[in-house]
Amino acid sequence: MHELPAAGPSATGDSGDSGYSADSGDSWWRSAAIYQLYVRSFADGSGDGVGDLAGVRARLPYLAELGVDAIWFNPWYPSPMSDAGYDISDYRNIEPAFGTLADADAVIREAHGHGIRIIIDVVPNHASDQHPWFAEALAAPPGSAARDRFWFRPGRGASGELPPNNWQSIFGGPAWTRITEPDGAPGEWYLHLFAPEQPDFNWASADVRGEFEDVLRFWFERGADGIRIDSAALLTKDPGLPDVDADAAPGPSHPYTDRDDVHEIYRSWRAVADEYPGRVLIGEIWIPDTGRLARYVGPGELHTVFNFPYLSCPWDAKQLREVIDNTLALHAPVAAPATWVLSNHDVDRIVTRYGRADTAFSLHQRAYFHSFPVDLQLGTRRARAAALLTMALPGGVYIYQGEELGLWEVQDIPDELRQDPIWRRTGGADPGRDGSRVPLPWSGNEPPFGFSPAGATSAPWLPQPKEWRDLTVTAEAGRPGSMLELYRAALRIRRLEPALGDGPMSWLPSADGVLAFDRGGRLRCIANLSAAPIALPRPRADVIIASGPLTGDGLLPTDTAVWLRTS
Ligand code: NOJ
């Protein structure tokens, strides 16, 4: 299924002798297991307490052994880091704290050498306020072409002292910031749907459209195999900038979410991607309406979209089944593969979520979820079962770094060390996302747990819990029953098993609280989310892998999943 293409004629980004070839295996993404790599927190090669590309290069063999098909890099570009790299000041370079463009080339080449593809994050909704275009806009007069690349408007009120409309920033506070004009007078306001350091681009500007097509080409030419498109439903805005009703549904009449004209952009991006065979466009789209979501993966648009309803779903068989059915139903008519994701850098880590009395998640209610006590043992058991359930579903799967180690959400980061703008801009009302971004533990018995090399000059940029000594890669490698060994084994089976990944699935009759389905007539997944152990339909010998031990008499316990061989 995930076999790498045989070595073919050299194409851009090829590594030569690895068997990787960018222009073959065109549909690799339909079944891929994609590892989300958050550079700042993955591995620090330089010893400054911040992850970097030297750290990534040193750990590529770990990812190859884990068995992932691709890496998605969170933004790695030069950035003042007002929003952890989602504020980009140069789309064609690498953040100096992470390395150089030559390091990125080496990462791409060496990853390809391991048979791992590279997906990079592109952030088209907004730039950094340090981007040269924004500096140019600030220096230019109102109404100039330089300002037209962003959303500058006069304020309301007698002297323009009020923002142009009532839009609120997704990170809290108004979505507008007033500038001082070059002559020192209080001036226009600019729009930022996120932090003030992230001015929104105006996608009606031909400069903006041309620039991003060029950025895509730049990275495809360097060998990137795919693009993850940040905030993909937000790009276009109603030029009238009307006030928004807090309850307005995303869609054509929403002033800035999921408007119809955003699709033109992705059609032109797709045309660019199609010039480079095997390259994939992946949309980050947080809209609840699955019918509208399907439009992004229609013919001539994106290849896949993230599946946030699955990620937000509670650990509940009925609700999970509903999300799975809806997801498959929305993808079927457009023949796009579904994607499955349990966690990422914006949401609470899964073992923590599943260890709470309320196992759902919503970006807008983080403080509520953090108010629950957490049973980590329970959460870990469920996360193990969820891993097998997720990897058995048809389509692609994402693994957020550290998920494979069973890391938990660090909810007790001291306030003075928190870095997420959400924390600051909500005055601490929302704890923010730092807890899912704590640097990985690799080895040893105390922080920095091998995240930084011996002799490092700084501590990791966020503190690691001392209990993570039991969750380091070294501690888990080879330890029966560890999360790492479960992920390694499941990914290995998934890669070798033709019935897994893309392809059909069929539900089997099952008791309440149980999810049971067949894949391709060869493999069956059963996840028991009910309160009691259940009998397995086939003899124990057919178990290929289980998320936890079966009972002495061969029953499948609560919060446990298995894959069974059926042929
Ligand atoms: C979505 C990204 O996943 C998130 O981390 C970021 O803060 C926002 N987009 C703004 O770029």
Q: Would you mind describing this structure in some detail?
A:
The structure is a single chain. With 567 residues, this protein is of the alpha/beta class. Helix content is 24%, strand content 13%. The strands form 3 sheets. The protein has an 8-stranded parallel sheet with strand order 9-8-7-3-2-1-11-10. The chain has a 5-stranded antiparallel sheet with strand order 12-13-14-16-15. A 3-stranded antiparallel sheet has the order 4-6-5, with no helix packed on it. Helix 1 runs parallel beside helix 2, helix 4 runs parallel beside helix 5 and helix 11 runs parallel beside helix 14. The radius of gyration is 24 Å and the shape is globular. The two termini are 18 Å apart. The N terminus is likely disordered. The chain binds 1-deoxynojirimycin. 1-deoxynojirimycin binds next to loops.
Keywords, separated by commas or semicolons:
single chain, 567 residues, alpha/beta, 8-stranded parallel beta sheet, 5-stranded antiparallel beta sheet, 16 strands, globular, binds 1-deoxynojirimycin
Strand order across the largest sheet: 9-8-7-3-2-1-11-10
Structural class: alpha/beta
Quick check: average pLDDT? 94
Q: Terminal Cα separation, in Å?
A: 18 Å
Q: Radius of gyration over alpha carbons?
A: 24 Å
Compounds present? Answer: 1-deoxynojirimycin
How many extended strands?
A: 16
Structure in a nutshell:
It contains 14 helices and 16 strands. The protein has helices at residues 53-66, 101-113, 132-139, 206-221, 262-274, 290-294, 308-312, 317-331, 350-353, 366-370, 376-392, 421-425, 473-476, 483-496; strands at residues 33-37, 70-73, 117-122, 152-153, 176-180, 186-191, 226-229, 280-283, 304-305, 339-341, 396-400, 505-507, 514-519, 523-528, 543-546, 560-565.
